[in-house]
From TrEMBL:
It comes from Ridgeia piscesae. Residues 20-348 form the Enoyl reductase (ER) domain. This is Enoyl reductase (ER) domain-containing protein. PANTHER family: SYNAPTIC VESICLE MEMBRANE PROTEIN VAT-1 HOMOLOG (PTHR44054:SF1), SYNAPTIC VESICLE MEMBRANE PROTEIN VAT-1 HOMOLOG-LIKE (PTHR44054). Residues 352-366, 374-451 have a biased composition (Basic and acidic residues). It comes from the Eukaryota. Belongs to the zinc-containing alcohol dehydrogenase family. Quinone oxidoreductase subfamily. One of its GO terms (molecular function) is oxidoreductase activity. Residues 345-451 are annotated as: Disordered. InterPro entries: ADH-like_N (IPR013154), ER (IPR020843), GroES-like_sf (IPR011032), NAD(P)-bd_dom_sf (IPR036291), Quin_OxRdtase/zeta-crystal_CS (IPR002364), SV-ATPase_mito-regulator (IPR052100).
Length: 451
């Protein structure tokens, strides 16, 4: 993709400067791209955030040969309006509303040059936010359920992260097949939403053992497990499969813990993952699959996007948009996923204005808080006192008083700061307790593995 040379036109772009926390992604003004041959330039209105981008920011993402080397751009999917046509493009016109993907991961920008085979016309009535949300999540779910899963009438399916982007898409796609029974895990406060989306049996994985819960309702297990978690959940999912059942591994969310990389979580996920023995798979009559859209590319993705857009036109699927954020608020947007708050897709938009910064309440000086009446009273009292003292007070004394008062104020200020420090100091204690709790958990993981 060539950047324009003789133009002052800029494109606000999100750039990952180094692996780490939220501060590693910044909005940078880059030169606006020119569409190359076979490309269109799209004025971006909305972009999708995927779990993979949290992992990329933390340096936890692996995509085969496509290693990520900051400084670099991010973003797979977006939607907007065609601004310019590259040489040889005849299938679109300037002004067309389109959804698009870039496998070079540089969609989080105001103007994106995209290969025309990854561009699709937006269906009538679709919003830019929906268009940005329907690609990665729905294609992933579509391939897993219909290519690997061979989803059929009456199948039982376990969907983890059922309230997230892929989870919502997978649930809706399951609903396009008659009598499919869906078990969905999600945080408890999202259960009404996932039920409304089509999950039959919501399970709160934080307080319940989902294996037990599934077996209570379906003692024989399920036909398909979609596993985006990995670690100990790989073995749990496999244990739930019926004969001819399939587990499809497609993520490792268990490696994520908050906004920065946790080596402990990574090690725990890696060492508690199930290692499959081909001989056991034969006798178990089960199938194990792995899916990575980023390593697929090309025609297979294009076909799936077309199939999903047809389902949208038929009213069978509809992306659920959780929230829309400005580029400048990328950390808040990513925080929705990291803090497990989102229901559906989180969107960022170069067109949206950032939220005003939340001002910290300033400590109010007592004298400033005086009302007009209080001020008047104080002035009158001062006047009386001055008259009584016969104008005899030396200037020095006044300065001394002021200084003493200043010292007192400073002391008070320090005391307050000290209190603040104490409060902050309590956090590590809390974190240490959580870490301790986690250290105790592998015992469970180890047990799960040996089962
Ligand atoms: N292989 C592929 O091609 C491919 C493509 C797309 C996505 N994926 C994978 O699919 C999964 C879902 O992706 P998504 O983009 O749709 O994200 P998402 O589901 O919207 O992710 C956020 C939600 O995940 C749940 N969650 C579970 N474990 C978590 C953890 N450790 N940290 C934070 N949240 C956690 C939380 O909801 P609850 O607490 O309610 O569960 C949270 O709200 C990810 O594992 C991703 O890597 C893979």
């Amino acid at each position: 993709m060539a950047e324009s040379e003789n133009t002052n036109e800029k494109s606000r772009t999100l750039v990952l400067n180094a692996f780490g926390g939220h501060d590693k992604i910044k909005v940078v003004e880059k030169a606006r791209q020119k569409p190359g041959a076979g490309q269109v330039l799209v004025t971006i209105e909305a972009c999708g955030i995927n779990f993979a981008e949290l992992m990329m920011r933390q340096g936890l993402y692996s995509a085969g040969k496509q290693a990520l080397k900051p400084p670099c751009e991010l973003g797979w999917e977006g939607a907007g309006v065609v601004a310019e046509l590259g040489e040889g493009v005849t299938t679109f016109q300037v002004g067309d509303k389109v959804l698009c993907m870039t496998f070079t991961r540089n969609m989080w920008t105001e103007y994106a040059a995209v290969n025309v085979e990854n561009v699709h016309a937006m269906p009538e009535g679709m919003s830019f936010e929906e268009a940005a949300a329907i690609q990665v999540n729905y294609v992933t779910a579509y391939h897993m359920l219909f290519e690997f899963g061979n989803l059929r009438k009456g199948h039982k399916v376990l969907i983890h992260m059922a309230a997230g982007g892929v989870g919502v898409a997978a649930t809706q796609l399951c609903r396009t097949v008659p009598d499919v029974v869906i078990f969905g895990t999600a945080s408890a406060q999202k259960h009404d939403a996932i039920k409304e989306n089509g999950v039959d049996h919501p399970i709160d994985y934080r307080t319940q053992d989902y294996v037990e819960q599934v077996k209570k309702i379906s003692p024989e297990g399920v036909d398909i497990v979609l596993d985006p978690l990995s670690g100990p959940d790989a073995a749990k999912g496999y244990s739930l499969l019926k004969p001819f059942g399939k587990i499809i591994h497609f993520g490792s969310a268990n490696t994520i813990s908050g906004s920065t990389k946790s080596l402990w979580k990574m090690a725990r996920t890696y060492f508690s993952v199930k290692n499959y023995n081909p001989l056991n798979i034969i006798t178990d009559n089960k199938a194990v699959c792995g899916y990575h859209m980023g390593c697929l590319g090309g025609e297979l993705i294009r076909e799936a996007v077309i199939a999903v857009l047809d389902l949208y036109r038929e009213g069978k699927v509809k992306p659920k948009v959780d929230s829309v954020w400005a580029f400048e608020d990328i950390s808040k947007a990513m925080g929705r996923l990291e803090n497990r708050e989102n229901i559906g897709k989180v969107i960022i938009s170069p067109k949206k204005a950032p939220e005003p910064p939340v001002e910290k309440p300033k400590p109010v000086e007592k004298s400033k808080k005086k009302t007009k009446d209080q001020k008047k009273e104080a002035e009158e009292a001062d006047k009386d006192a001055t008259e009584k003292n016969d104008d005899a007070k030396p200037e020095k004394e006044t300065d001394g008083e002021k200084a003493a008062e200043g010292e007192k104020k400073e002391e008070e200020g320090e005391k307050k700061e000290g209190e603040g420090e104490k409060k902050e100091g309590e956090e590590p204690k809390k974190e240490a307790e959580e870490e301790k709790k986690e250290v105790e958990e592998p015992k469970e993981g180890a047990g799960e593995k040996s089962n």
